[in-house]
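Support request, please re-run this one:
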Amino acid sequence: MTPTNRIRLLVAAAAVVAAGVVAGVVLATRQDPAQPKALCARASAFVVPGVKSANVAAVRAAMRRPAKRAAQLLEPLAFAHPKDPVVQFNDARALLCAGFVPDAAQALRNAKAAGRDSYYEVASDNLLHPQFFGPGYPPFQYFGRDPLLIQGQLAQRNYHQRTAERLWARAARLHPDDADAQVAAAVGRFDMDDLSASFSRLGPLVRRFPQSQSVRFHLGLLLAWTGQRDLAVKEFRAAVALGPKSRFGKLANAFLSRLVTGGTNPPKR
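Re-run finished. Output below.
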């Protein structure tokens, strides 16, 4: 073996050992000396079609193993591929299943960032914030014909929230006096880690467009989605008062029937 090849072999071996050491140290130094109690036996692989990843086969193979073993296999892979949402999200699920909850939360944050504008972003946010409603984000409701608002609706329905945000922001710039466009731009900014991103834009629209059912309805929707029941009821009632027989009036009534009678989830969209 030539000196060059020997060096390459040693470097490759060192990299493998280092990855194993990282995984071993991470798993061996979990907060308490006692091993965490597994929350489930194993978690199945979750691979979203269309999301690029060179590690799908490795993820699927790891997730066939019991939860703790799956976590051991995925931790070095997640360390090596921080921008791969398939790896990050499944690593989080394995860690959560194995009982490593704080580490799973960090892995979900990694998956949310790596999976921006895909289902992984939304699913990670939902898992990080179980106190809020889900799955998904509050859907923008629109019954008009503006192509940008419609395209944004379709993007959001396919979990491309950031694409929807860009489309709705463009519509808001083009139509500064249109209540629907301004509401859409606010809803597009929704992020469970930063509720003010949407509420800071949506709240002032109540004063700017006092006769807009869309403003009242969507403010109620976001309040309901984030568990602010009493305020949501107030906004939905205001939306109904502006026209109980309209589409927004009927939608607001549907939410009120669940919220006032003790239902815990918004109606299905």
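The two ends are 66 Å apart (CA to CA). The chain has 14 helices and no strands.
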